[in-house]
Amino acid sequence: MFQLLTVGHSTHSIERFIELLQQNGVTAVADVRSVPASRFTPQFNREPLRGSLERVGVRYVFLGEELGARSSDPSCYIDGKVQYRRLAQTPAFASGIDRLIDGASRGRLAIMCTEQEPLDCHRTVLVSRVLTERGVEVSHIHGDGSIETHDDAMVRLRTKHHLAEPSLFDTEEELLGRALDLQESEIAYVDKQLSAAG
After folding, report:
1. Which residue of 61, 95, 112, 177 is 20 to 30 Å from 45, comparing CA positions?
2. 126 exposure class (CB count in 10 Å sphere: 0-12, 13-18, 19+)
3. How far is the C-alpha of 175 from the C-alpha of 180, rounded, in Å?
4. Cα–Cα distance, 156 to 56 (Å, whole number)
5. Is 187 exposed, middle or buried (0-12, 13-18, 19+ CB in 10 A)?
6. Cα dihedral across residues 19, 25, 27, 32: positive or negative
């Protein structure tokens, strides 16, 4: 099956970010930010980033409308907070996942979002979760250049939420599901207008 990488641009210089990609043989970047712009790191605004990547032979694809964490679909929210399960069931999200898998069959693809720590980002808690359920192998590039398998990241997640030990009553899948749900509740986007309306 295919392998996909994920990476957070964090506050890296564009040179350091490109170095991380090149160290891992990345040939294309799929941007899954809902808003592909940053006041603090303008080098990662959509068009400057596209240009920087294309100059070093790395393709840039924007998939934030399909795979971003801030859905424009009100049915994906409860009390203003986006619900990852609902988001994952939308046709747009399914289309974005299909495009990632197709892209991974053609080259070395990295899913990019903002957060440096994979566990703090929907690229891991939502997108990678769905990809691994589809049989895709996912690994995460850290800011220091190290690579972490998705399985190892999920061990860290279970440990963080005190769910690492085997349970008499819960399967491994159920424990991981609980850890993912807890992490989602910490990081999921809240639409203040929808929240106020609720």
Report:
1. 95
2. buried
3. 9
4. 34
5. middle
6. negative
Q: Are 2 and 136 spatial neighbours (Cβ–Cβ below 8 Å)?
A: yes
Beta bridge partners of 148: 140
Length of the chain: 198
Confirm if 29 and 110 have CB atoms less than 8 A apart.
Answer: yes
* Cα-based distances in Å from 100 to 3, 14, 30, 114, 120: 10, 23, 8, 18, 21
Looking at residue 192, its pLDDT comes to: 84
State the average pLDDT for the chain.
95
Given a cut of 70, is residue 119 above it in pLDDT?
Answer: yes
Q: Give the model confidence (pLDDT) of 42-63 as tens digits.
A: 999 999 999 999 999 999 999 9
Which tokens is 1 given? 């099956």
User: What is the CB-side half-sphere exposure of residue 18 using CA atoms within 13 A?
Assistant: 18
Residue whose entry in the numeric block shows the structure tokens 């790395």: 58
* Each residue's pLDDT tens digit, 135-189: 999 999 999 999 999 999 999 999 999 999 988 899 999 999 999 999 999 999 9
Alpha-carbon distances, residue 8 vs 19, 77, 115, 196 (angstroms): 13, 25, 5, 31
Catalogue the E-assigned strands of 83-136: 109-113
d(CA 59, CA 109): 9
